[in-house]
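Long-time lurker. I teach an intro course on protein structure, and each term I like to show students one example going from raw sequence to a predicted 3D structure in token notation. This year I'd like something fresh instead of my usual example. Would anyone be willing to generate the tokens for the chain below so I can use it in lecture? Attribution to the forum is fine with me.
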Amino acid sequence: MGNSPHIVSIHILDDDSLLNIFYLYRPFFLGEGNEYERLYGQWDEGRWWYRPAHVCQRWRNLILGSASYLRLSLLCTIRTPIQNMLAHSPSLPLTVDYSNENDITTEDEEGILFALQQRDRVRHLRLYYPVRNLRKLVMAIDGEFPILEYLILETLTEDSTALMLPETLQTPHLRHFALNGFACPIRPRLHPASTSLVTLFLIIDHRSAYFRPNILLEWISFMPQLEGLAIGFTFPVPNLDVERQLTHTPITTRITLPNLRLFQFQGVTTYLEAFVCLITTPRLEGLEIQFFEQLTFPFPRLAQFIHTTENIRFDDAVILFEDEQIRMGMSFREADKYAFAVTVDSCHFYRQVSSVAQISNSLSQVFSAVEHLTLRRRVHGQSPEERNNVDRVEWRKLLRSFSNVKTLRVDDALVKELSRCLRWEDGELPLELLAELQELTYIGSRDTGDVFASFIDARQNAGRPVILVHHN
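-- Reply from a regular --
Happy to contribute to a lecture. Here you go:
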């Protein structure tokens, strides 16, 4: 307040007010925020209380006297003298967080193993290491960890075999569980703990660890509190293999996940179809899917699943063609995150357009809600000649799926492609394409507006005028 005589010291605040400030100051991974912040955020923020606890004796007594309410913990991490720290610190829960792409040092390995011996104190455990290092550390995660809430284990290098959790591991209060590079991630012994799971992220990168859709459904049937679910296979299981498995072991039990807000999947369409047809997610807010390259993309069950999910709604779509992937993101305009996103691995541009056309055709009832469509191209390796080989039929199939689009925004790299599919052909202009279109915006430094001239003139003559806008 500068030279004002009304300067007031912070010490005028009572203990309850200070405690409320400390509570709101805590980092996201302690319970708030989204699933990514909980699992993959900056856990070194676990030291948040160290500095205010050194301000004065009153603050120190207030913070340590409210350790449970503030969820205080001691951070065990790289280059921390764990034994010395624990010997001279209050007996608080432990946050064990180690990550390194290189080999683990002798000091850090000793610190991790010593921290893991304090089983009744470990609340958060996250390890990212090469397989050769993680294998030894995982063997120490055995027995009962009575207060463990976060368990995140990820291998940073590939190996010929998957790791396994110890048979004796017990986590009665586990809430957030993420594994990458492990086999048999959930077994019957973990089912009692599954009832409290809020987040489950499983990345399966070994064929020996593959599990069928009915096994996944059995697992999540024990998880009524689940809010975030991510299942990813890093290898493409053939659709025919999944179909054969479903024939021999058909799925019949329907499961409701009343609290699920985020679902992510990476794999093949048949697996996803078999899964979503038997789950109900009334509160789902985000659906993110990644597919390997495949010839067809039939989604009858996925379309029905999205229709029954009240919160998956959008009016804006962005389709991005890249060197090795296509990304489709749907949201409400100006929203900061996608409600529905699809990514497909594909290298050749003509296959990318064909894949998007199939996906949009399969989900045409869903995409009919889109009013604002953006088509973007970000390429480094493919030549203009390859882009021009895309059949205009595929482009028209794609655009027909967005029947209610009112504004279309096109990157400079796609202007010629889009203009070709909107031109006169055999004396007939495809007026059924983008029938509700009111504004066409193209982006780029070159003045290529004339390539849309026939489309704009025809729409004008048909009484459906479209405004053409150019942005650099």
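Some talking points for your students: Residues 9-72 form one domain. Residues 349-362 form the longest helix (14 residues).
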